[in-house]
Amino acid sequence: MVRSMISLTTLPESFWGYALKTAAHTLNRVPSKAVESTPYELWRGRKPSFSYFKIWGCEAYVKRLMTSSKLEPKSDKVIFVGYPKETRGYEFYRPSDNKIFVAQNGTFLEKEFLSAITSGRKVDLEEIREPQEEVPIVLEPEQRDQAIEPQIAQDIPRSINDPISLFCDNTGAIAQAKEPRSHQKTKHIVRRYHIIREIVDRGDVMICKVDTDEKIADPLTKPLGKLKHEGHTRSMGIRPMPDWP
């Protein structure tokens, strides 16, 4: 536990004593398998408080007691290293003068400390593959052209006899194409006045009304008559095998 605490901070290994004291302070206040309650509760007769717990090794700002001039900073950036035994407060290490002092409060940068740990653990993993023996295949000159195109592509039909009409019940596209004024569907001038109208003029999209009887219903989930079943199936793009070339 002490090794893990020191490895996640910038403190030198000489602070292992403070890490050990903080670890013992924490373990005495958490449940364990040896006793039914916490060791602190057995010794003091009351439940411990965790409101003052801080992350060991995180940076903090502690207000200075005195400043020589108004231009100097009012607080020092320090590192939290433990809890004092004689009084309430926290033990801080100030790297600027290599001193440890006790203060009752400070602004702890715990979120920044956790985010730095998370970003530091990102490791780029490279996929290692064992080399496989490859056997070169020599083809005859007349077979090289045939090997360029995969065999599976030759088995797939390229076209059908009649095109498929796909209907889309898009109220937003209808509103954009027919409504010249501003509406809730869009407020962008280029999209409302130019793009949709150009697509319609090119014939890429055709706006038309589809009757209720001609609206596509899924023939695989809904019971339909024979004629409706065949018509809706063709509208979905499903074709029987004789229709394919």
Automatic annotation (TrEMBL):
Which Pfam families does the record match to this protein? SH3_retrovirus
Where does the sequence pass through the membrane? none
Q: GO terms for molecular function, please?
A: nucleic acid binding
Q: Where is the Retroviral polymerase SH3-like domain?
A: 58-113
Which SUPFAM superfamilies does its entry note? Ribonuclease H-like (SSF53098)
The protein here is known as: Retroviral polymerase SH3-like domain-containing protein
Q: Which organism is it from?
A: Cuscuta campestris
